[in-house]
Amino acid sequence: xxxxxxxxxxxDGVAFIIKxxxxxxxxxxxxxxxxxxxxxxxxxxxxxxxxxxxxxxxxFIRPVAxxxxxxxxxxxxxxxxPENITSAYCGKALAT
Length: 96
Fold this sequence. Notes:
Layout: E1 8-10, E2 13-20, E3 23-30, H1 31-40, H2 50-71, E4 78-80, H3 82-95
Parallel strand pairs: 3-4
Antiparallel strand pairs: 1-2, 2-3
Helix pairs in contact: 1-2, 1-3
């Protein structure tokens, strides 16, 4: 399954697939989490749809999902929330 084919909008966010070893795992990021990340990155996403925001921020979102999968492999699908997005963003900012 191609990377683009694995992404689909939902009524309240975006569902996407990440590779975990040889398996594919479903993840979900809420619209609220997308809005939080766009604000943290100083991107005006007020008139963008969830899929457009996801695509613009995908290079940050996928590693966060991978990290959450490694931590909570039994809680599927992986859910990205404003809280874990903020935590990951602030942790990355402190590490650089």
